[in-house]
Design brief:
This protein has helices spanning 11-25, 44-52, 62-66, 108-125, 157-160, 163-172; strands at residues 34-38, 78-82, 87-91, 97-101, 130-131, 135-136, 151-155, 175-178, 191-196. By secondary structure, the chain is of the alpha+beta class. The longest helix has 18 residues, at 108-125. It is globular. The two termini are 26 Å apart. It comes from Ochlerotatus intrudens.
């Protein structure tokens, strides 16, 4: 709250937000306790390993670049993660904050509980932009509303050979199919990122 979206941010605002986010997250405790790592000055090998492990974002794709959302890269960008790397916060990627809860296995309840705990704690320190009709505000209109994208990485080798069928099944249940490296990426070894497509007009429970 209080800052424009990425295309309108100045470099000074990027850096100011990075500092504010780092300070805010340093107050997290327990399972959420961790460390903030600025992208500026980060070792390239460390950065690539975090990307390969699906923990860190890359510089925006051609769509974000066309929207002028990658200016001053990597200034003002960073990542926070706890010791177990089950809780992460991306600073100034596509949105000002992207709060992530993740872990191996199928315990979705634990993943969601961790997310709710973190969001409630962070929101006490830095208020989020919210609209009475649209819900929480985000850079991309497809994320308006709850802003929650719940995804699983799942191997579906047979469906991977028949993309039209996979996409038809996904559409039937309002799901989105992506590659394992995010939007506009390819699947690797028949493993896809499957997530909910709708965020607006639904509650978090829905």
């Amino acid at each position: 709250e209080g800052y424009p979206f990425n295309p309108c941010l100045t470099e000074a605002q990027y850096k100011e937000m990075e500092s504010k986010v780092s300070t805010t997250l340093s107050g997290l405790e327990g399972e959420l306790k961790g460390k903030f790592y600025p992208l500026t000055g980060m070792d390239k090998a460390v950065q690539q390993q975090l990307i390969d492990d699906h923990f860190l974002f890359k510089e925006g794709d051609r769509f974000l670049q066309a929207a002028n959302a990658c200016r001053f890269w990597p200034s003002g960008r960073g990542i926070y993660h706890n010791d177990n790397k089950t809780f992460l916060v991306w600073c100034n990627e596509e949105d000002h904050l992207r709060i992530i809860s993740m872990q191996m296995g199928g315990d979705l309840g634990q993943v969601y509980k961790r997310l709710v705990t973190a969001v409630n704690d962070i929101e006490k320190r830095v208020p989020f932009s919210h609209h009475d009709r649209l819900g929480f505000l985000t850079f991309c209109p497809t994320n308006l509303g709850t802003t929650i994208r719940a995804s699983v990485h799942i191997k579906v080798p047979k469906l991977a050979k028949d993309m039209p069928k996979l996409e038809a099944v996904a559409d039937k249940y309002n799901l989105q199919v992506r590659g394992t490296r995010g939007e506009h990426s390819e699947a690797e070894g028949g493993i896809y990122d499957i997530s909910n497509k709708r965020r607006m007009g639904l509650t978090e429970y829905d």
